[in-house]
Inverse folding.
């Protein structure tokens, strides 16, 4: 069968992509995406991620930022990633697949950041098998080990103890999801007892850094794309306000245009320093910039679990 003909703009994009030095370099280093270089540059300039930190990565697939972050946080840290798309397991990274705009995904993520075990509805049997395959252990081992442990850290310890060769990767890549069979999301419990008790119900674990590289599928119509993109940045800020520890950092991709200046002004209220950066790896013709906000001051939403009530605002 003849191959479908590419449009001129598709061909241009492909040529540009394969000529791109960051694409070539990512390929050479075996990295998941050229996006890694953006975070690398921000890290060099702003020293955002440190060993032992808990980092939340929103819009994580295919995993360039998570891959970078996990090397910085080390064994004592955590990287909790979320994307609407699937992501190949990455050693040490806990992944939640779901649409961040959806209430239950937002709540699930909030719970996990605060140490809750994954909820059953977010456990996918295929993931258990995929994780096992990635770690070269059988699926039953992964599921059993994950269910045996009470918390993420315990799961990690059990996996490392029982299967130091392969299962470490299993815990790293996805065992938290597998553990969900016995889990009740702590955020659910929290919302049931009300906002005041929420923080203590989920534990005050929190995050040191929230990253958001989320971008909607672009239609090409700015009147549609810009509000969609700003909605994702606002949601990411909502999560950051709830989970960041005082002094924490928030990095968010923003498309300059309608609403971006107002968003910058909002950030300035909650963080001591906000810088607008355009990393070298960010294409010149793209309106994307990264707002790097450091020194979280705390917020009325700090430690407050989002509500399970679907009619309530997140
Ligand atoms: C630019 S890519 C991220 C690249 C990533 N930082 C990396 O280093 O590989 C943007 C990601 O945002 C995700 N995304 C867009 N809308 C989302 C949503 N509503 N919920 C979760 N992820 C979303 C997309 O699926 C896409 O993978």
């Amino acid at each position: 069968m003849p191959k479908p003909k590419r449009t001129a703009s598709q061909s241009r994009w492909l040529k540009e992509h394969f000529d791109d030095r960051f694409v070539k370099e990512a390929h050479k280093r075996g990295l998941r995406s050229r996006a890694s270089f953006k975070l690398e540059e921000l890290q060099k300039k702003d020293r955002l991620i440190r060993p032992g930190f808990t980092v939340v990565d929103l819009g994580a697939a295919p995993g360039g930022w998570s891959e970078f972050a996990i090397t910085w946080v080390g064994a004592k840290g955590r990287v909790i990633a979320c994307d609407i798309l699937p992501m190949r397991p990455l050693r040490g990274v806990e992944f939640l697949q779901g649409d961040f705009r959806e209430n239950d995904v937002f709540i699930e993520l909030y719970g996990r950041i605060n140490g809750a075990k994954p909820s059953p509805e977010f456990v996918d049997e295929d993931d258990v098998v995929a994780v096992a395959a990635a770690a070269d252990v059988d699926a039953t081992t992964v599921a059993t080990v994950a269910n045996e442990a009470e918390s993420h850290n315990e799961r990690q310890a059990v996996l490392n103890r029982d299967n130091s060769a392969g299962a470490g990767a299993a815990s790293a890549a996805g065992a938290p999801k597998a553990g969900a069979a016995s889990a009740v999301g702590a955020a659910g419990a929290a919302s049931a007892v009300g906002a005041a008790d929420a923080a203590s119900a989920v534990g005050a674990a929190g995050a040191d850094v929230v990253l958001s590289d989320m971008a909607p599928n672009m239609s090409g119509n700015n009147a549609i794309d810009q509000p969609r993109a700003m909605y994702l940045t606002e949601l990411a800020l909502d999560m950051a306000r709830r989970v960041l520890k005082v002094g924490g950092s928030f990095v968010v991709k923003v498309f300059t245009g309608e609403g971006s200046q107002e968003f910058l002004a909002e950030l300035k209220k909650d963080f001591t320093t906000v810088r607008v950066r355009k990393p070298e790896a960010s294409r010149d013709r793209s309106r994307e910039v990264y707002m790097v906000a450091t020194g979280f001051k705390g917020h009325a939403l700090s430690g407050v679990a989002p509500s399970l009530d679907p009619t309530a605002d997140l």
Notes: Residues 20-26+34-308 form a domain with the Rossmann fold fold (CATH 3.40.50.150). The first strand starts at residue 54 and ends at 58. The chain has one domain: 20-26+34-308.
